[in-house]
Write a structure and sequence with these properties.
alpha/beta, Urease, subunit C, domain 1, TIM Barrel, 2 domains, nine-stranded mixed beta sheet, eight-stranded parallel beta sheet, 14 helices, 19 strands, globular, binds (4S)-2,6-dioxohexahydropyrimidine-4-carboxylic acid, binds zinc ion
Length: about 425
């Protein structure tokens, strides 16, 4: 029997509200016990004193680019970036080439992930064929093939009747629908937030209304259909009120926010850095303040990275021509844990937003330390400083707005099913 004893850390398990110094014992990949002074006989001992020991992070919104765009990322490199960022499970979006709108693509991703990725990977299938927003996919067949949710992320389903049918069918397969809320007409050629900054830079803007209108519409359609609606990457403060009211009404509406929307504003674009270009765009300080508060209050349920790798040569063009998206798996905890260091969020709440809540919403394994369950664990130092250079990262791409900066909050080690897959000094451990 293989035994690992993670000794003396601050064990944070939001699923049971546990926050105490304790040992965590893993046996044959499963959580065997949590408690004081557990026996270490035959166990490999990991000293976690002064560190946080939490359930592995779960990212419900990443772009892993396989199949078809493996020059940006693949399931191996994306999986390595994930575990280096403390993530043990990922849900990958369907805007691949070909699109994941067919069970054969879902199956391909799962087969490859099993062989290549140190993190668990759960595909999100397209809601409409080719992400065109016109004809629904075969949701039951995709679910049977292993899809955990449905989304046209990257594109917005503009036809409300199509969206209604997607939501109706999602209730039959009992899976959440993830909405990318940006009105195509209002967004048009917008490349950043519409406001003072876009005017000053002379760049076409994308107003907050492009998001708010779709959040409002889709909440109404969730009410009409009874479906589980998950709102992807909320960027506008105005969306938060709509989500709050939907929850008060008892609708099955959940939402996520990215580390970049929690920490950066459109001011970051002042030097035309294409690594500040993503969809939806960075908004204003007022929006950031509202999003932070909403995450702390639980109106926004979880943090998701929207990890969106692009090659150097694609981003090294004029701002308007660059593709939307930034990578985020390896820096998410450092950026998000600022909320802890400022005193806005408690450690237990932060771990809930990064692990327990996303696992619950998407019904994935993980998100807690239940005895007998698979041991997906992250060991963290929330106060440790480290230098981040995207060129040294595990992702194939480097399009990060934080590259070259000193960050605070470091991943010490990551275990998937009890197996050490990442260690700060050694890097990704392959066996
Ligand atoms: O910034 C983004 N990048 N937003 C999206 O909706 C798509 C994503 C991508 O696939 O690159
Ligand atoms: Zn996305």
């Amino acid at each position: 029997m293989s035994r690992v004893l993670i000794r003396g850390g601050r064990v944070l398990d939001p699923s049971t509200n546990r926050d105490e110094t304790a040992d965590l014992l893993i046996e044959d990949g499963l959580v065997a016990a949590i408690g004081a002074s557990l026996s270490s006989a035959d166990a490999e001992v990991v000293d976690a004193s002064g560190r946080w020991v939490a359930p592995g992070f779960v990212d419900v919104h990443v772009h892993l680019r396989a199949p078809g765009q493996e020059y940006k990322e693949d399931l191996a490199s994306g999986g390595r970036a994930a575990v280096a960022g403390g993530y043990t499970a990922l849900c990958c979006m369907a805007n691949t080439e070909p699109v994941n709108d067919d069970p054969s693509v879902t199956q391909f991703i799962l087969d490859r992930a099993e062989k290549e990725s140190p993190a668990r990977i759960f595909p999100i299938a397209a809601a409409t064929r080719g992400l065109k927003g016109e004809v629904m996919t075969e949701m039951a067949a995709l679910k049977d093939a292993g899809a955990v949710a449905f989304s046209d992320d990257g594109a917005t389903i503009m036809d409300a009747a199509v969206m209604r049918h997607v939501l109706e069918y999602s209730t039959l397969v009992s899976a959440p629908v993830v909405v990318h809320a940006e009105d195509c007409g209002l967004r048009a050629g917008g490349v950043m937030n519409e406001g003072v900054m876009s005017t000053r830079l002379g760049l076409p803007g994308n107003p907050v209304e492009s998001e708010e209108i779709h959040v409002a519409r889709d909440i109404r359609l969730a009410r009409l259909t009874g479906a589980r609606l998950h709102i992807g990457h909320v960027s506008a403060g105005g969306s938060v009120e709509l989500i709050r009211r939907a929850k008060e009404e008892g609708l099955a509406v959940t939402a996520e926010v990215t580390p970049h929307h929690l920490s950066l504003t459109d001011e970051a674009t002042q030097n035309f850095d294409t690594n500040t270009k993503m969809a939806p765009p960075l908004r204003t300080q007022k929006d950031v303040d509202i999003l932070r508060r909403a995450l702390v209050e639980g109106v926004i349920d979880c943090i998701a990275t929207d990890h969106a790798p692009h090659a150097d040569y694609e981003k090294a063009v004029e701002f308007s021509a660059a593709p939307f998206g930034v990578i985020g798996l390896e820096t998410a905890f450092a950026i998000a844990s600022d909320l802890y260091r400022t005193g806005e969020i408690t450690p237990l709440q932060l771990m809930e937003r990064m692990s327990t809540a996303p696992a619950r919403i998407f019904e994935l394994v993980g998100g807690g330390f239940e005895v007998g369950q698979q041991a997906d664990v992250v060991i963290l130092d929330p106060d440790q400083k480290w230098s981040y250079d995207a060129a040294d990262g595990f992702s194939k791409s480097r399009n990060s707005p934080w590259s070259g900066l000193e960050l605070t909050g470091r991943i010490e080690a990551t275990f998937v099913q009890g197996r050490l897959v990442y260690q700060a000094e050694k890097g990704v451990v392959t066996q």
